[in-house]
Amino acid sequence: MISAQDQARLAQAIGDVEDDTSGEIVLVIAEQAGHYRAIPLLWALLAALATPWSLLWLTALSASRILLIQLAVALVLSFVLSWPKLRYALVPRSIKHAQGHEAASREFLRRGLTRTREKTGVLIYLALAEHHAEILADTGIADRVDAGIWAGIVADLTAAIGAGRLTEGLIEAIRRIGAILAEHVPPRLDDVDELPDKVIILP
User: Fold this and answer.
1) Each residue of 93-119: pLDDT tens digit?
2) Which candidate, 45, 8, 10, places its Cα nearest to that of 172?
3) pLDDT digits (tens, 9 = 90+) for 139-161
4) The whole model's pTM is what?
5) I want to staple 119 with a disulfide (CB 3.0 to 4.6 A). Which of 59, 91, 140, 146 is the partner?
6) What is the C-alpha separation between 55 and 40, in angstroms, rounded?
7) 92 CA to centre of own chain
């Protein structure tokens, strides 16, 4: 998904920008936000339900033979459509977006971003299978930054990923978020690194 060398580069970028702010950045990269195992079965059952109508009109097959064909269609399609690329292609964009947002919100809580001293944690979340990127900021920084700024960073990040520049796009996003944090929450004299800088990789 991402090499150890690139993970080290990203961790270094996070550490560098955090030197200029009391805010915290956490990067989570997930292979997928959801499995969508029911999707292939749903499409296979819909196809199986539609199968008898053409057979009834165009053939003289018995009801029992048509039932067997229905079962075969359901089994074959549920197997074929379970292939990851086909499965993800069948999931509506709105469902993938909702699943990505839910996963990002879950990671925001799980990684301790709500527990920083000044509520200035920022999560960068990627779900590669869904092509979903999201930035979530805690209240100490979210209340000071227009939502459109985060959306612009996400748009540029997804464009970079689409162009095959995953690591470079993430480093640029980290630097832009770091600049925002440095402006609004500069480092304190007693500042400590509250959250790890390492890249969190999820299967």
Assistant:
1) 898 999 999 999 999 999 999 999 999
2) 10
3) 999 999 999 999 999 999 999 99
4) 0.81
5) 140
6) 23
7) 15
**Which tokens go with 148?**
């459109």
What does 65-128 look like in DSSP terms, one character per residue? HHHHHHHHHHHHHHHHTTSHHHHHHHS-HHHHHHHHHHHHHHHHHHTTTT-STTS-EEEEEEET
Structure tokens at 193: 């690194």
Residue identified by tokens 């509506």 is: 92
What is the architecture of the domain spanning 4-34+92-202?
Answer: Roll (3.10)
Neighbours of 50 (CB within 10 A): 11
Handedness of CA 98, 99, 104, 107 (dihedral sign): positive
Are β-strands 24-30 and 132-137 bridged in parallel, bridged antiparallel, or unpaired? Answer: unpaired
* Segment holding 133, helix H or strand E: strand 132-137
Own/partner long-range contacts of 67-73 (Cβ < 8 Å, ≥24 apart): 73/44, 73/47, 73/48
Residue pair 45/27 in contact by the 8 Å Cβ criterion: no
Q: Are 117 and 80 in contact (CB under 8 A)?
A: no
CA atoms of 113 and 74, how far apart (whole Å): 45
**pLDDT band for position 199 (cuts 50, 70, 90):** very high
Q: How far apart are CA 150 and CA 122, in angstroms?
A: 11
In whole angstroms, give the CA distance from residue 65 to residue 73: 12
121 φ, ψ to 5°? -80, 145
